[in-house]
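Handout for the seminar on molecular recognition.
Each group receives one record of this type.
Step one: identify the two inputs.
Step two: read the structure output and locate the region that could contact magnesium ion.
Step three: write two sentences on what you found, then compare them with the reference statements printed after the record.
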Amino acid sequence: MNRGIIGAVIGDIVGSSRESKPVSRKSFKLFTKGSTITDDTVLTVAVAEWLLNRNLTSIDQTLRKWANLYPNAGYGSSFKRFLKSEEGSSLGSTHNGAVMRVSPVGYLATSIDECLRLAKESAAPSHNSKDAIEAAQATAVAIYMAREGRSKEDICHFIEDRFHYNLRTPYDALREEIHLARTDRNGASREANHERIVGARTATEDALIAFLAGRSYEDVIRNAIALGGDADTEAAIAGGIAAAYYGVPDEIIQQALNYIPSDILYVINQVDGTNWMPSKLIPPKSSRWSRNDVVIFASDADDTMGESSYYLTHPSRYRRHYNIGYPIIIFGPCTVSLEDQIYLLRRKCEDSKDTRWHLYDIGIESGVLSVEQFRTLFAWALELDNVLVTPTLLNL
Ligand SMILES: [Mg+2]
């Protein structure tokens, strides 16, 4: 079993596809098409790097550095304000952003006092408010105590005494309450529910209740996500704590590695004392694309079929310019054979190392290619680091 920040990162990945499509049941697939790392993972790694190099860098600098490396990770509005602010300034958000990134403190601190102090420092640049600091402290202390082998009852008492949190709501009642408020016709009630979900104190209480009610690492992140709120953040918080208490099973980590870029995995390994090797990555969803991403798509020679127009547009919601996709002509007549087209694509991928090529299922849904044919034609993509491949090719 693996105890470490990998637990928070996996919570983020599993929750990522449920943030916009909330679930109310605990039975769902852990990894899906929309799974991806988000701001919770990127900033957790930023806090980790700061803790590992405190004599060389500041928390302010590492947060900015990692946010620049991953500009489309889905940062909240107050964190974006922090990124635009002068270095060394301090914003007072009361939202859950400092809690979701605090797990490295719980794993690297050597005493409860140090844990409390470092959690406060890790929150300070963007979340310098009583609620956000206490929530980060409560989460870090829960991890620290779980590492020390303390019982859930001990952890619960400490947090109730110190921060006056209410952790006695039964999990099922809590889930019911949040779901009712989310679907309430009354706008004021929905607004109050939103505040509850993004608020540092309430989000942390909810994540702790998900942890206290859980029976294993996996059960805890399912609990957190099934609350139906800010799923990736709730599962990152609860998953960080559950990993310290239960450990994370190897099989879940193996699956998650398909979503964790190597620079992020490097820091995770340092904190957790593990040796996970980077795996092939699955393409992130479109909201995470940047200029370096090119999508390989199925088309016909005239470009009237397939999805090229989609990849040529500037989706207004994200206001970002995407690269033109790369067509593989599988519909209708074409003067170049499919094998030759794929050979040319392979040469392009080998030559343009700075481009991230996204290979999805091509020709399978339309019945032009069988899964076996697809796997044979594109097997070479598994050897190239700059090609992110569909789960179909990975046999997942
Ligand atoms: Mg997130």
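Reference statements: The CA atoms of residues 11 and 235 lie 4 Å apart. The chain has two domains: 6-272, 286-389.
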